[in-house]
Structures are given as structure tokens and as C-alpha cells.
Design brief:
Chain A has about 200 residues and is an all-alpha fold. Chain A has two domains: about 55 residues, Arc Repressor Mutant, subunit A (Orthogonal Bundle); about 140 residues, Tetracycline Repressor, domain 2 (Orthogonal Bundle), CATH 1.10.357.10. Helices cover about 65% and strands about 0% of the residues of chain A. In chain A, helix 4 packs antiparallel against helix 6 and helix 6 crosses helix 7. Chain B binds a DNA duplex (19 and 19 nucleotides) through helix 2.
DNA sequence: ACCTGAACACCGTTCAAGT
DNA sequence: ACCTGAACACCGTTCAAGT
């Protein structure tokens, strides 16, 4: 009857599941995420997803992984055309990170949730590595230019990392007096710069 | 038959549910938390919990609230007997916060999750306020002693907040090169002190 | 007041069977 | 290869009824 009886998803059910899952996550929260409903939305049987994700957790892990990858891309792009000056670079990264966090609050929650089972997620680990490397490299370069205090990279970059992430997380979970949601960004950037300057 | 047929929980089913829920959260993670299993564990019918929590979410909110309250207590206690010197005070708070985060990883996740529905959780909001007030007061006092740079409290305390929370969250979700899990603490404390000194 | 039992509409996961 | 249908053992929530 319907012209799309034979695979609406062009054999790309896996990708379709991920896309739809992220929409649901964004619109209705993580609790509303069900494999059966996803399957219903995509017009396949409830057992079909299991061909592509052995588990609900596997779907969530894949979602988290794609989140880290896109975040790395956003952070990377934030440095385009920014002069090699640590203050401007830090400002750009912080704004990009907080922006990503705001636009993908529920996804970020999932990305940093304590869940993802130890094994099976080497890909996830690699994805997280990629964006932390980005910050590390940024700090390392500035250090080479003498704009950042000396010391092992883990010592100089770690607190930047922590402050960046902490501010975004607090802002996203509504823990901040809302009157400074925007102003707070400048304050945090200035704080980071004070903390890393030579 | 059994001597405990009449209310094993001495009419304190609500408290018993919270206690057991937190055990399950700690031992088996949030996904394993089910009202029905909780009821089974406590020897009541599966419908009994609804007398005390209108919702599963209500149970989770109550759990989060008790988390914030205990965290405020731990942070408060961390200042006992600490000399009025901002460096020592910050060190004590940071260690206390990270310690609490480590000991209650899953609970912290829940506390900061994007979930808790806007209404119904005034109590929750109040509980979060209490611990942020603690940090605010600490910074304000040090500021009065001239140990912290001038400026509105939200500007001086906010980044402390962010760094503190960010480090704990990263450490707990295993995002840090584990070799500096302990050493990182010192680095972060030093960074915070650099950021707030006059 | 507090709890039970049954009922309803959902889940995730597995597995034979179809194409 | 990829998907279906039925089956199994679970869920959360509601509501009459019991004590």
C-alpha cells in the first residue's frame, strides 16, 4: 500500500535511530527515551533496533560519543580566525563550550554521566580524548609563546578544563543566579586568565 | 506468621524508601532504581510508595534534596578548626567537596541532573542555596580581611564555585588522567587561590 | 491514615521465523 | 543481512477495597 513499505530509512536505521533519539532527548528528556517508541517513530518493529545496538546502553553510548565528536568540532571551529593571543583564544573556547552546553543540555548530561560501562566504549574514550587534546594544545602553544606560566601541561591546563566545564555545568543545570548568566561568562574568562598567566 | 507482619518500617516507610533508594543508587546505578523493587526490598506492596511519593520523580527529587543538605553539612564541617586564612579554608572546602563527590558519585549526578521539574522543588532550591551560601560567606569574610580581591561577591565567588564543581565532576566521571587524581587537587587549589587573591 | 490487589498501558530483551 | 511477531519478565501509575 504505502510506497515506503520497504525500508523508509534506506538501510540506514542505525543513523535514523541516533538522530531521532537525540531529538527526543532534547525535547522530552532522557526519561522519555525508549527503544520501542523510537522504533515506532521510524516505522520499524520494536525488535529492529537490536540489530544495530545490542542494548539500550549501547545506543546511549553512541549518542554520547557523537556528542563528544561534535563538541570537539565546535571547539576547533571556535579558534578559526582568532589571533594567537591566549586571552582571545580562551574567550573563544569558553564561549563555544558554554554555547554547546546550552544547546545540548540533556546530551551533555548524558556525556558526563557516570554510566557508560567500562568496556565497549574505547571509541567513547577516544572521542573524549580528542576535545581535551584541543584544550591541551591551546595551552601548550600559548605556553611556548610565553603567555602562560611554566610547568607541566597537566598542571596548567587542568584547572582551565575544570573551570570551563564547571561553569557550563552549573549554568546549564540552572544553578546560577540567572542575572549573571551572561555577565558570568566574562568573569569566568578573566578568572581563568589570571590563573594561567606567567 | 512473621512477627514483623505489621509495618517492618515502623510507619517510617518514607525514610526507609529514601535510605534503600540511595543504597541501590550507589551499588547498582540510577537505571536499576525501581519503585517496585524498592517496595519488594522493604516488604510492602508495590503500590505503597505512592502514599509517600506521588511519583518516581518525587522520590528522585527528595533524594537530591537530602544530598544537598548533607553536602552543605560536610562543607560546613570542613571549616571546623581551620584558621581564618583563605588558603587553608579553600583547601578544606575543595577537599571536602571532592571527597563528597567521590563518595556519592551517582547521587551527585542526580543532584545536578537537568531533570527536577520546575515546580514542587522549592525545597530543593532552598537546599542548593544553603551550600552555595556557605562558599559565598567564606569568600566574603576573606574579602573583608583583605585576603581576596575586591568586587561584587558574585564575581569573586562564582569562578571558585565553577572550578570546584568542575574538578569534582571531571574527577568523578573519570575524565581525568588518573595519575593526577590526587595531585590534581593541589594544582586546582593553587589555581583558585591565584584567581582570587588581591 | 496507611496499605493491598488487581488492572492498565507501557517497557527491554530474546528468539524463532520470515524475506 | 535485516527485519517481524510473539513471548517473557519486568516497569510506573491508578483505584477500588480492605484494616
Amino acid at each position: 500500500m504505502h510506497p515506503r513499505t520497504r525500508s523508509y530509512h534506506h538501510g540506514d536505521l542505525r543513523a535514523a535511530l541516533l538522530t531521532r533519539a537525540e531529538e527526543t532527548l532534547r525535547e522530552k528528556g532522557p526519561a522519555a527515551l525508549s527503544l520501542r517508541e523510537l522504533a515506532r517513530d521510524l516505522g520499524v518493529s520494536h525488535a529492529a533496533p537490536s540489530r544495530h545496538f545490542k542494548d539500550k546502553q549501547a545506543l546511549l553510548d553512541a549518542l554520547a560519543q557523537s556528542g563528544f565528536e561534535r563538541m570537539a568540532a565546535v571547539l576547533g571551529a571556535s579558534q578559526d580566525g582568532v589571533p594567537e593571543k591566549i586571552s582571545e583564544q580562551v574567550e573563544a573556547v569558553v564561549r563555544a563550550y558554554v554555547g554547546f552546553a546550552r544547546d545540548n543540555a540533556a546530551l551533555l548530561d548524558l556525556m558526563y554521566s557516570v554510566k557508560h560501562d567500562p568496556e565497549a566504549s574505547d571509541a567513547l574514550l577516544e572521542a573524549t580524548q580528542r576535545w581535551s587534546d584541543l584544550v591541551l594544545r591551546l595551552v601548550a602553544d600559548a605556553q611556548a609563546r610565553g603567555e602562560v606560566r611554566e610547568g607541566p601541561l597537566e598542571h596548567t591546563a587542568l584547572p582551565v578544563f575544570a573551570t570551563l566545564h564547571g561553569y557550563a555545568d552549573l549554568a546549564v543545570s540552572g544553578m546560577l543566579p540567572p542575572e549573571m548568566d551572561e555577565h558570568g561568562l566574562d568573569v569566568v574568562i578573566a578568572f581563568i586568565l589570571r590563573g594561567i598567566r606567567p
